[in-house]
Amino acid sequence: MRGATHAKWAACAVAVVLAATACGGSDSGGGGGGAGVVSSSWGDPQNPLEPANTNEVQGGKVLDMIFRGLKRYDPKTGEAKNMLAEKIETTDSQNFTITLKDGWKFSNDEPVTAQSFVDAWNYGADVRNKQNNSPFFSDIAGYADVHPASGEPKAKTMSGLVVKDAKTFTVALKNKFSTWPETLGYQAFSPLPKAFFTDHAGWLNKPIGNGPYTVDSYTKGTGMKLRTWDGYPGEDKAQNSGVDLKVYTDNNTAYTDLISGNLDLVDDVPAQQLKNVKNDLGDRYINQPALIIQTLTFPLYDPQWGKEGMENVRRGISMAINRDEITKQIFRETRTPAKDWTSPALGEKGGFSATLCGDACKYDPAAAKKLIQDAGGLPGGKVTLTSNVDTGSHRDWMDAVCNSINNAIGEGPVCTVNPIGTFADFRNQQSSFKLTGPFRSGWQADYPLIQNFLQPLYYTGASSNYGKFSNPEFDKLIDEANQESDATKAIGKFQDAEKILVTQMPSIPLWYQNGSAGYAERLSDVALNQFSVPVYNEIKVS
Amino acid sequence: MGRYVIRRLLQMIPVFIGSTFLIFFMVYALGDPVAALFGDKAPDPATAARIRRDLYLDRPLWQQYLHYMGQIFQGDFGTAFNGQPVTELMASAFPVTLRLTVVAIFFEIVIGITLGVVSGLRRGRSVDTTVLVLTLVVISVPTFVTGYLLQYLFGVKWGWVRPTVSPDAPFNQLILPGIVLALVSLAYVTRLSRTSIAENVKADYVRTAVAKGLPRRRVVTRHLLRNSLIPVVTFIGTDIGALMGGAIVTERIFNIHGVGYQLYQGILRNNSPTVVGFVTILVIVFLVANLLVDLLYAVLDPRIRYA
Amino acid sequence: MPEPEHPAYDPLQPGQGEAIAPTGQGGPMDLALDEAESLEKTLGDQPSGPREKARSLWSDAWRQLRRNPVFIISSLMILFLVVIAIWPQLIASGDPLQCDLSKSQQGSAPGHPFGYDTQGCDVYTRTVYGARASITVGVCATLGAALLGSVLGGLAGFFGGWGDALLSRVADIFFGIPVVLGGLVFLSVVTSTTVWPVVGFIVLLGWPQIARIGRGSVITAKQNDYVQAARALGAGNGRMLLRHVAPNAVAPVIVVATIALGTYIALEATLSFLGVGLRPPTVSWGIDISNAASQIRNAPHMLLWPAGALSLTVLAFIMLGDAVRDALDPKLR
């Protein structure tokens, strides 16, 4: 009897082990990519890989490889250059006629036509398809019919989109929007092949696009193999024979694989390794500005922060933060102290200004203390910073900011942090206006325009205006800027609006976030674009 | 014994219902997941409302739960937010984690019990002290650090093993992660078997066995160890589930896409289908493991019987 | 419920009788050997059964303890830690919250023997001040989990039946709750800045393990012949459990509890990392260890000191646990 039990137990164990191994299958081998193939770190995209549903970098990486839109932002200058568009014409900044170039096709040989765009945009706007990026189409006339605020949509297509012929379509906007064509480089505006609509599940398993790469295989949660599409009609052909994206759940692990030769490219160097990067990689390390700014937003809906006179306290807090020391010690120069509310990746021409915020963003503990005291002190004598702590190293900089404020004011621990466990919880508290102290707000621009840094965040009632800032003068200047057809004048107006933020200080600019990447010796011509995504098609493999 | 096992298996039904409801309720209590799907941008209200409606999130809790259970009985465990069915996630995550757990348990048993026996037999000698010091190190240094250090030394510096595990996660690549995962439990197993051995080594049956002239080896393995194993077996039984669901840190360090990772992501994103599905399986694993442990009691100590 | 039966209620049960039969044939056969063991246990245990010393099992243990140097040393260490936890300013003059970012991660300097952490705070001061929260969390959570777990587990193992089944299944569900989920749900609604919610949460998660261990060990201990003998002599349940079963079943619980003490202090760090643990201005080893862990390649000294303090605490309690266990075990005297 006992012997039998032993045997049974052993048999069970063996069965379990076998079952476990059997599911494993063959070893796909590791190491860097094959000949001419770049292996690169990746994260699991949060949403299905539809262009209008992808709003984060990981999904964006793939879309940038397999899609080309009407325009494409130059990876170096950020300038929106025509890609599939032959020309985009308008006389009134409201009605546009778009003409496509000849010869473009999807990798399944279906030609890219005006209909490919119109169908894709209508799909993206339709509320029934639950696309995250649908608000990008909200400027187009007829958006409310396919995307009503509540209830069922009245139409399947937007009246503002009309196909003239295979290569031409017209777009009518709801309002004048002079820089609208510049927004068309965003991935949500990509064209879609018929297969997307006829075999949606099949398309999601193996997306088909019109970019320099085609998807060879896609295993959700594990990785994606992309191969160069030999028939790609565009100018920016891939300089390598493919890209293998491998999913990592921790960027430190990806970094370890990079320095041990198992991976070619890591596009997010972990904070704790920044000190060793020079040693490990030498000059194979990129650290450049991206279109991301981190700010601390004040809950102006709460009278104790929003009432008249508190702008000096807000200004004082801004001046109590030692941005230089924090970006140096905590972020090791992968953040740059903020000097305005935009990003240096825009360039001076695009509206970035290193002097706009001026003294209000400079560390001056004595002046800060005086400003705060003269304005009546912190509300209730204390201030609490809130952020989610499940991603990024938010806890570290929050502690550092608080220490900096406490040291400047010199009244003990008046500044405390309020870490929140999940981003979802943080976002819910933020969007229900429950927070009673300054909170983190990060902003990654969708396209390199100063408008995108200001209007969605500070315009009265704007979608991401979580602090409920409202200033009629600011709103007026933004409206004027949007109607201005001359680009330089428009940017000037936007900057005038931005100057109001200096005096009102609805949010404290903390720092600009850089994109960082490290790569193996066999790669060259590695660069990041403004969205801190590697420009894969230009990478050469030796 | 057959009747006993059947009774224990029947008990799984209320536990299954109870735990799914509890976990479902807990994820519900975490709050609304939809706003977080939109990243740093503000959610579009109409789209968010549509997503909520399709996910049944706009209903009261009990309706959500009934809907979910109804789906489960049709074999549909729901989908994660990236559109992947939860059953697919489980099919890819559980085999990998199961293998990792098997490796970890193997090391716990082999190394843990060996060290425990050796230090138990040589109480107070230098071997015992060394094992104690190692135990202290393992308890006070976080898994993150030991995992990272071992990965760096073996994987990068000396290049003996692959620093990360490939998606298929074959056993040979899981040795290092398995050791790292087993470390803290090793401390428990070692101390438990040491104490048990030390307690039983003076027992009269051991003295008799020795007096009878049995080889020392036989006395230790047959008489001493067998009578000392019950607390160790109990511990390992409770540990199986903990190793499977709690390997978040180890799985991250070695890039293993297993249960810990999926569960963690599910929790951070408040995705109830993922969390409830995975936890339910884990609870079943616990139930089975503890049933096996209870049955093993009878094997190890024949005086214990089940009717 | 169907939990273990008590085969020896009737001392003349066939099973026992057969076990006695092959005595002396200590041959190579498994069966014979095992049965020989049971016999030897039967014969060996009876004379030293606690009945004889029942007059003073616990006071005997106490007398034994006082003479044990291990006990004295560990008690002194614990006393020291408690004093530091209550009056940290006795050995540290600085302020643990006074930080200068420009000194981030610097090594030791005059007056700052352990160097600075990432925020530029003094590691020595923080290690000393961290004792209070960490020891409170560790000791209280361990005591809570050990008491709750061993009482419930012990009763379940001793009586078996429906109570055991119910308790074991409830424990199974508790095992299934992921720490991350439980922490986020239970602790994010708490706004208190004290250590008590964290202690309560750890007890909630920790008791099932100790209950399982205690239950298993009681199930074994109650099979012992001296327990059966006591029952035969008419001892009540309470008396049997306290006098005869508990002292013989307590060893594994002590072992697990002393190690758990260390892991609970570390668990507090995990909770802090998730944003639901102890909050500043509370200083704890757990928080400092988790902050230092990611910087191990840059500033190992940040990890060394708080982790060392944690080791010392665990060592003291492991030694204490060992001494107490030895004192309770009559065979080792």
From TrEMBL, chain A:
GO terms for biological process: peptide transport. GO terms for cellular component: ATP-binding cassette (ABC) transporter complex; periplasmic space. Residues 1-22 form the signal peptide. Keywords: Signal. Residues 81-464 form the Solute-binding protein family domain. This is Peptide ABC transporter substrate-binding protein. Pfam families: SBP_bac_5 (PF00496). It comes from Streptomyces roseus. One of its GO terms (molecular function) is peptide transmembrane transporter activity. Gene3D superfamilies: Dipeptide-binding Protein, Domain 1, Dipeptide-binding Protein, Domain 3, Periplasmic binding protein-like II. Residues 29-55 are annotated as: Disordered.
Automatic annotation (TrEMBL), chain B:
Residues 94-297 form the ABC transmembrane type-1 domain. GO terms for biological process: transmembrane transport. The chain crosses the membrane at residues 12-31, 96-118, 130-154, 174-192, 224-249, 275-300. Pfam families: BPD_transp_1, BPD_transp_1_N. PROSITE patterns: ABC_TM1. It is a multi-pass membrane protein. It comes from the Bacteria. GO terms for cellular component: plasma membrane. It is found in: Cell membrane. Keywords: Cell membrane, Membrane, Transmembrane, Transmembrane helix, Transport. Belongs to the binding-protein-dependent transport system permease family. This is ABC transporter permease. It comes from Streptomyces roseus.
TrEMBL record, chain C:
InterPro entries: BP-dependent_transpt_permease, MetI-like, MetI-like_sf, OppC_N. Residues 1-53 are annotated as: Disordered. One of its GO terms (biological process) is transmembrane transport. One of its GO terms (cellular component) is plasma membrane. It is found in: Cell membrane. Keywords: Cell membrane, Membrane, Transmembrane, Transmembrane helix, Transport. It is a multi-pass membrane protein. It comes from the Bacteria. The chain crosses the membrane at residues 70-87, 135-158, 170-189, 249-267, 303-324. Its main location: membrane. Pfam families: BPD_transp_1, OppC_N. Residues 131-321 form the ABC transmembrane type-1 domain. Belongs to the binding-protein-dependent transport system permease family. This is Peptide ABC transporter permease. It comes from Streptomyces roseus.
